Amino acid sequence: MRLKFILALAFLCLMPSLQVLADNFEDNDFAEFEDFDDEEFIVGNVASTQQPEIIAADTAKSNGNVKKSDSDFAEIDNNDEDEAVVEDEENEFEHFQDEEEFEGFHGTTNEADDIKHGDPKKTEPKLTMAKVPMHFRTHWDSYWMEMLMLAGLMAYFANYLYGNKKNSSIASLWLSTHKSLLEDNFVLVGDDGKKETEGSTLSFIKESESVYTLWCSGRTCCEGMLVELKMIKRQDLVSLIAGIMKPVNDQLHIKVEMSPDSMDNFVFCVANKKQAAKMGKEMNDLSKFCTLVNKTEEKYNIPGYSLLSEIAEASSSILDSRLIAALNKYSHLIEYIYASDQYSGPVQQEDPNTLKQPEVKRILHCGFNIPPKIEMEELKPLLVLVLYLMERIRRFRLSKEGKAKSDKNRARVEEEFMKNTHAARAEAAAQRREEKRKAEKEKILANDDPEKQRRWEEKERKRLEKKRPKMKQLSIKAL
Q1: Strands 267-272 and 305-309
Q2: pLDDT tens string 332-367
Q3: How many angstroms separate the CA atoms of 85 and 88, rounded?
Q4: At a CB cut-off of 8 Å and minimum separation 6, what does 214 contact?
Q5: pLDDT of 64 over the 60 cut
Q6: What does the alpha-carbon distance between residue 397 and residue 407 come to, in Å, rounded to a whole number?
């Protein structure tokens, strides 16, 4: 308490002095500089006797009666030369000499003199410039990789446009050549779903850049006919290069879907030897019903072809003199002729969970090659041959023995399918029975009649006892 009283008394005594100092600082315009100078002199030269004029000036400044002249400032500058550094605004490279700014930089007295005299050429640091490739006009060989890539892309796109146009022209030429023949044998040619509503012109449907299709319908013996042009991928430069090593031709596929009452039950295929071996393994119906006949040249006089036949009677009837003459004359164009009532496509991987056989159709499928240098008029007899085979198959009927053999083969295939899928069908039947019992149980439990529940439980108990294996009891005679 006494200490607080003493501090308060001292503060009251010092109040007038503090007020005088505050007034002096407000009236003096050079207060900031005076503080700085006072601090410098107090730190460095308080005890010095060599600067009486500066001390006197400081005393006069503290009293507020300072007269600043050019001589006074000159004395201050000369005396403080060691403590102050004058910045030269003309030297714009001074920051290059900062030792803290650049690591490993060691300044010299000569460099310091250059800075003071403002010589930037001697003080500029040595900068390492990156080596940039010369301009394209002088060193164009540096861009050979880029130019090669651009040339490849331009060649690819130019080939794409040319190949696309070439395939389209081939399809248009084939259609214009065979248009009259198609319209004479079919009511609707080129059905794309727009003919009746919009009156669209006859043209192929473009499935891809190299596949064109045409659907025809309106004939008594068939549901319809699909004409498919599978051409070389001329729009793809890579495919063209691959075709040089393994040449391929454009192909014409004609697939006729026969009516159920217009074709008897048989499977037949005549093809060149390479194609016959391939189709016998890949096609589902040919692999199950047909056997390969090797002596076709001696028996039917068709060299270069193999026969896949289910019933010899059907093969002999279809391979008449007209078809044999066409096979011999157009052997370089006809690849295969394939008729089947069990057509289901290529062989599928066996799935034990499959419970139904694949859906089958009655088809007549013909494949022809289109060589590169051939006139479209030369392909017209091939379409006439397809129309003739449609009528030939429609008129053909198996004999009683042939029909019995055909039915026997189909029963055999059905039995094999049943054996292969027996486990899956048994599992599916058990699952259906279990679901049926589960639904019946839920229905009984939902009923409030306890008598019905008791009868159902009794019935279920008897069923489980029947399924339980019976054990025979053996009597052992005593010795």
Answers
A1: antiparallel
A2: 999 999 999 999 888 877 665 666 778 889 999 999
A3: 9
A4: 175, 189, 190, 204, 205, 226, 227, 228
A5: no
A6: 14
C-alpha atoms less than 13 angstroms from C-alpha of 215 in its C-beta half-sphere: 12
Confidence bin at 200 (pLDDT 50/70/90):
low
Q: Is 181 helix (H, G, I), strand (E, B) or coil?
A: helix
Question: What tokens were used for 474?
Answer: 């053996």
Contact 274, 236 (CB under 8 A): no
Residue type (1 letter), 109: T
Could you read off the pLDDT of 368-380 as tens digits, one per residue? 999 888 888 889 9
pLDDT at 314 over 80: yes
Q: Give the DSSP letter of residue 355.
A: -
Q: Which of 325, 331, 343 has the alpha carbon at shortest distance from 388?
A: 325
Beta strands in 66-210 (DSSP E): 188-189, 205-206
User: What would the two tokens of residue 352 be?
Assistant: 């034990």
Question: DSSP letter string over 291-320?
Answer: EEE--HHHHH--TTEEEEES-HHHHHHHS-
* Helix or strand holding residue 334 (H, E): strand 334-343
Cα distance between residue 38 and residue 373, in whole Å: 111
First and final C-alpha spacing in the chain: 127
pTM: 0.62
Fill in the amino acid letter for 67. K
d(CA 385, CA 178): 13
